[in-house]
Amino acid sequence: MFRRHSRPTADYDRTGKVPVIRASICNGEKVAGFKDVATGKFDELMFIRTDEDLWEFLRSYGVKEEELKKEW
To answer: Residue 7: its pLDDT value, please?
Structure first.
């Protein structure tokens, strides 16, 4: 009854995009998304406020924590 339903993972182009967390040096805001390797364009997908938000992003897109890159 109170069990959390698992969401299906969304897929992304693993050959052309890498998962990235963009963090602000000034205020510490974090945004999760994917960066295109060829163009450098960043697609913002989720605002990260807590560790639970980060785990939700990783779980939703099937990303492993070691694959995640951090940019400032």
So the answer is: 53
Q: Which two tokens stand for residue 55?
A: 């785990």
Strand order of the β-sheet with 30-36 is 42-48, 30-36, 17-23, 69-71
Token pair listed for 31: 């945004």
Taking only the tens place, the pLDDT of each residue in 22-33 is 999 999 899 999
Beta bridge partners of 10: none
Among the residues of 1-72, which ranges form H helices?
51-61
What's the Cα-to-Cα distance from 5 to each of 1, 20, 52, 64, 72, rounded to whole Å? 10, 26, 16, 20, 34
The single-letter code of the amino acid at 29 is E
Are the C-beta atoms of residues 48 and 65 closer than 8 Å to each other? no
Bridge partners for 30 per DSSP: 23, 48
